[in-house]
Amino acid sequence: MKVKYTIDGKDFALYGITVTSSQGLLGGLKPKDPLAMEWTDENGTEVDDDAPVFFQSRAITLNCIMTAASAEELITASRAFYALFFTKRLHTLEVSVGDNKLSYTVYLSDKIDIDKKWRQGHMTASFALKMTEPEPINQ
Q1: Are 86 and 60 in contact (CB under 8 A)?
Q2: The pTM is what?
Q3: What is the mean pLDDT of residues 78-98?
Q4: CA triplet 22, 28, 31: central angle to 5 degrees?
């Protein structure tokens, strides 16, 4: 089954990008520390059990491979892909698998550092796309 990745509605495949693996899309969220009090005259910690559970931001990493027919195509496609992240701060990352669609509001949290293989003919580059979902909604 094909997995489709988009950022603000732009399919990664338009840029010759395939996601080879990901971290952070499906795993559970890390809870924030509960409201707690340390009393000097009591053992341990008193935790507010009535307070709702809140979660830390989610880190998402997509390990990607970009392919192109020439060095010029690779440069053009990589620049066009980078530009997607410089139009505004928050972006919509969508991952579609069959009828299931996962959606995340994210920002780019690290530079895109490409490791390229310049060869006669077919060009290949790999990179890790690191993003943060500041207010996670999917658990």
Answers
A1: no
A2: 0.87
A3: 94
A4: 130
User: Which token pair is 62?
Assistant: 């997509």
The pair of three-digit structure tokens given for residue 38, joined into one six-digit string: 């340390």
- 21 burial via Cβ count (<10 Å: 0-12, 13-18, 19+): exposed
**pLDDT tens readout for residues 24-51:** 998 888 988 888 889 999 899 888 888 8
Give percent of the chain above pLDDT 70: 99
DSSP states along 52-120: PP-BPPEEEEEEEEEEESSHHHHHHHHHHHHHGGGS-S-EEEEEEETTEEEEEEEEE-S----EEE--S
67, 16 contact by CB (below 8 A): yes
- Counting every residue written for the chain, the total comes to 139
Domains of the chain: 3-133 (2.40.30.200)
pLDDT at residue 139, rounded to an integer: 57
Contact 38, 48 (CB under 8 A): no
